[in-house]
Amino acid sequence: MTDLETLIAAELAEPADPRVVAMAEAIAARYGVAARAVLFYGSCLRTAELDGQMLDFYLIVSDYRAAYGQRWLATANRLVPPNVFPFGHDGLSAKYAVLNEADFAALCRPEASNVSVWARFAQPSRLVWTADGAARNAAIAAIAQAPVTLATLTPAAALDDPLDLWRRGFALTYGAELRAERKDRSGSIVDFDPDHYRRLSAALAAEPPASLPDLDARWRRLRRNGKLLTLVRLAKASLTFAGGIDYLAWKINRHAGTTIEVRPWQRRFPILGALILLPRLLSRGAVR
Question: Which residues 6+ apart lie within 8 Å of 62 measured at CB?
């Protein structure tokens, strides 16, 4: 392993709340031999607050056809990854995204057409369930690419502090998706666990990533792709995520301080309801 992979492996192996582990095991059990790994990440990992929150997981599978009994779900996951599903276990609520091992690895690399996976896994995460050692090693190798991708795609500039790279990089990723969080959210992620990012900076210094040409053009494409993909995923989630529009409203209210109420007709026609709601949210600055 490289120094970076060793660091990532150690952080992924740090213990998680037993309720998180039990939920991960329950998610994996739904997919039988297709399940390869379950990762826990996001705000609930940072704050250790679980009750009354929506936990975030990624389920890594071997193959979409093997994972699903319904062909259309496998096709949807392949064409517009990931599929996202709600899940409840032992009084906790969660959502989990499904990717196969090949897509997960590809979406952590600089060539990815959107930021959604590598931006999340450049942040701390926990590997809370694996099928075997090969699955564990594959997850470590994929996740180790995520901070490399952020460093590669963040324009070089004078840095007063090693943390400035991560603050700048996450600010760019937040601008490449439709997000409800406050404008300072990208910086607060770094400030929540600065030692994590200092360790990443030290590991990257041993093997500096190669810079890419014309980063401005790359970020224009990432912003265009990311915001369009957000809308496409929203439409797809209306088919796979029961109560998805209520979750969307809850998240926007929580992060943007709004008081959005979902009307009954919007639950019946979630795609139409979300599309009508979106311009109002943009005009108010609730999503960016």
Answer: 33, 34, 36, 100, 101
